[in-house]
Structures are given as C-alpha cells and as structure tokens.
Amino acid sequence: MNTPRLETERLILRKFTEDDMDDLYLLLSDEEVNTFLPWYPVKNLEETKAFYEARYAANYEKAHAYDYAVCLKENNVPVGYVNVKMDDSYDLGYGLRREFWRRGIMTEAAGAVTAQLKRDGIPYITATHDVNNPRSGGVMQRIGMTYQYSYEELVQPKNVLVTFRMYQKNLDGNHDRVYRKYWNVSEVHFV
C-alpha cells in the first residue's frame, strides 16, 4: 500500500501533488514552523519543488510510503504534513502551518496515520522532539506514545547539538520493545 488516502472528521490526508507547490511553500518557508526541523526554510518555489521531488515524489515511487499532505476537508488545501520513515525506526514526523497551531489538527492527523500503520501491520512507531519544543511531545503523548529516553545528536545541515526526547508506541502488542538505535549511537543518553 503506497500512501493510502485517509479521512478524519475534519481532515483529508493524501499525497502531495505538483499542484500543491504554493501551499507547500507556505509551510516550508516559515522560519518559526521550521525552527526545530533539521532543514533550513526554503527561499522560493524552485527550492520547494526540489524538496517535493526529493522527499515526496521519490517516496511515492516506493512500494510502501506514508507521506501525507494534511488538508482541511473544507477545501482540500495542504496546511501540514505527516510522514513515517520506512526504515527500522518507523519515525513519525510532522509539521503544520503556524496559523493552524493549537487546534488539534496534528493530533487528529497523526492519530489517523498511526491507525493506518497498525492496520497495515507496522509493529511500532517512534518519534523524537527537541527538548525546547515540548508542544511536539504533546502530540506524541495525545496519540498514545510513551517517553522512552533522551539523547544528544548533532543535527545536520544546521550543525546544532540537540537533546531529543524519544517516544514510542508499539502497535503489535509487544509492550516491552524499546527502539534503542538512538540510545546506542549517542554518547550522551539518559532517561
């Protein structure tokens, strides 16, 4: 299954398309939205399209991809994104345009994607947030993720040392599993 379309009470979660570049630009160019993300804000539509090609179009070619445009049902216009890496971390990531913060949109979207992952047999998900961005951790908690540990990482290309909090939700009933890769590769880690 490749990015199955999802609907919630207020949202449509679908693939980004080339028609979404203006809206994707609004999301990716906002410095405040991108403060805690590993990449720099885009500066123009050319950079937006390059980001789309590298991060979305390339993943949509794969057999399994969970890379969603988060759209309001009323107009099907992207206001955010949710994605899950298809490696052993099953890392959940998300972003939302600033004017839509504090409305429960990301919790609703991430919850819908998590439910789809469970239906598709994905065993667990992880997610991390910068300790200076506790609101992101709030989304993780509201969708049932549990704090596991913290670790330091030098984030590129920004070259900033960040302390991350790692959350996990096991979807297959194995409640004892803890994804340890971040712990194992970081010299500084703690609970």
UniProtKB/TrEMBL annotation:
**A GO molecular-function term, please?**
acyltransferase activity, transferring groups other than amino-acyl groups
Q: Which Gene3D superfamilies match?
A: 3.40.630.30
**So where does this one cross the membrane?**
none
Annotated N-acetyltransferase domain residues: 11-171
> Which InterPro entries does this entry report, sorted A to Z?
Acyl_CoA_acyltransferase (IPR016181), GNAT_dom (IPR000182), N-acetyltransferase (IPR051531)
Identify the PANTHER family for this entry: GNAT FAMILY, PUTATIVE (AFU_ORTHOLOGUE AFUA_3G00765)-RELATED-RELATED, N-ACETYLTRANSFERASE DOMAIN-CONTAINING PROTEIN
Write the protein's name. GNAT family N-acetyltransferase
Q: What is the taxonomic lineage of the source species? A: Bacteria, Bacillati, Bacillota, Clostridia, Lachnospirales
